Amino acid sequence: MSSKYQSFKYIKTNYSYISVYDNQKWDEGKLQTSDKISIPISSTALHYGQTCFEGMKAYRTKEGRIQLFRPEDNARRFQESCERLVMPTIPVDVFVEAVKKTVLANESFVPDYGKNQSLYIRPFMIGVGDNVGVKPSPSYMFIIFVTPVGTYFDGPAKPVDMLVSTYDRAAPEGTGAAKVGGNYGASLLPKEHAKHLGFADCIFLDPKTHTKIEEAGTSNFFGITKDNTYITPTSPSILNSITNRSLKYIAKNMLNLQVEEKDIYIDQLDAIIEAGACGTAAVITPIASITFNHNKHIFPYHQEMGPTIKKLHDILTKIQVGDLPDPNHWITYIK
To answer: Model pTM?
Structure first.
């Protein structure tokens, strides 16, 4: 398909994948043409938030091949999220094969090479059994749908302004490290508040002391320091971003940068010359400024993407579409 897909807007494709867990076991799973499901009104997903998901992409290479980026890592993180919500896990090989099957069934929707587009993949699990009490569901659905998407930006990504939120994204010993629906529901109001005040998104501080950066909206935060070090926060309530993991590897092994996972205090940003938020959707969103307690800290590279972040972005996206070699068993070919 060669259409210009705009941002992340849902477009129905030909098939989705569904597997049902009942009587302590999963069925074989199947493809279906409908993008609708029917679940009991007492499902735990609706009342108690028993739902988790992953975000992935499939890319078409210059040669016409279709490939996935680090699907085994998504599968393992999905297992961790399921365990956190007391849901049955999906074996890594079953997860990856289900993703492959779904992408191949929708091959005509995988955008052409060179258009800065991809096929977004959303695997998720929900508790669906009849249940009223606060306890794990007896039944679950594992579903995968896909939709073709464009980029978050028209042209080169421009640095954005962010506001430090007074809200907490997650509790100190809560579900912050899992990719569960409740974390994202909790982020909606802070983000809307930031946008109402003219900011692109919000920055969340650590919930215990409110002194250290944890996440940038729904993305991991990272920075490049004056001494050429890639720094990113460390905390048990931060999602273990696969994009951030990839950027850390590229920074260390391909750009010869120092990499440090450390506390990044909100009132000590002067050492950072380039800042960004990273995730599957936008890859990297450069950050121009962070406003905290009515004080606006502007990073040196605030008018355009900084040189180091641009290198990181270009290397990662070229690996994803097959223009650079796979550096560490990240690519899985589908076709």
So the answer is: 0.95
